[in-house]
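Summary of Year 1 activities. Much of the first year was spent building the evaluation harness for sequence design. The harness presents a backbone, in tokenized form, and records the residue chosen at every position. We chose the following record to illustrate the format because it has been used consistently in internal testing since the harness was completed.
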């Protein structure tokens, strides 16, 4: 067995936590895997101001699926700006998880097979939007320099929470 094969085999046998720890230790240049991912990264560089920009004469998006997708993209872009540290790493994981699942759960709700299923998924969207607000607040506390951008995202999360709460109460 060659040295490369042994290395590959050892990495394969590593636990999920060990792989995650090794991933965080890699320099930023090594973390970008290939050109396909690089092209996605270019499209994900969404600033908070793009959350409300529209090609249709400045009118606001009322399509919740599109709005939640843009919100998730903005959360990902924001998370990339947060410096890595032991405290921030956990906050980043939680923030990205909650912020992107709002849109994913809305897609699930939209495809719900029954009224009960729809209401359940909308309830999950509410919870994830509220959780996103919480983690944005924690990031603003951990990294005060990011507070203005976190505040804008928090406002959008609040609006989404209110929208989903209204739908859920119907």
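For this record, the design step produced the sequence shown next.
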């Amino acid at each position: 067995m060659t040295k490369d094969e042994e290395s590959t085999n050892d990495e394969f046998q590593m636990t999920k936590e060990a792989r995650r720890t090794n991933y965080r230790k890699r320099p930023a240049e090594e973390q970008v895997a290939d050109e396909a991912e690089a092209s996605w990264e270019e499209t994900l560089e969404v600033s908070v101001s793009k959350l409300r920009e529209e090609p249709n004469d400045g009118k606001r998006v009322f399509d919740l699926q599109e709005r939640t997708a843009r919100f998730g993209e903005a959360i990902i872009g924001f998370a990339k700006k947060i410096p890595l540290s032991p405290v921030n790493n956990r906050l980043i994981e939680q923030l990205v998880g909650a912020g992107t699942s709002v849109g994913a759960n809305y897609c699930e709700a939209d495809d719900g097979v029954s009224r009960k299923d729809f209401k359940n998924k909308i309830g999950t969207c509410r919870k994830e939007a509220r959780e996103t607000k919480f983690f944005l607040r924690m990031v603003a506390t951990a990294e005060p320099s990011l507070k203005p951008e976190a505040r804008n995202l928090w406002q959008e999360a609040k609006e989404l929470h209110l929208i989903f709460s209204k739908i859920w109460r119907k």
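The helical segments are 3-13, 16-25, 28-31, 35-44, 64-81, 86-110, 115-142, 147-169. Quantitative recovery figures across the full test set are reported in Table 2.
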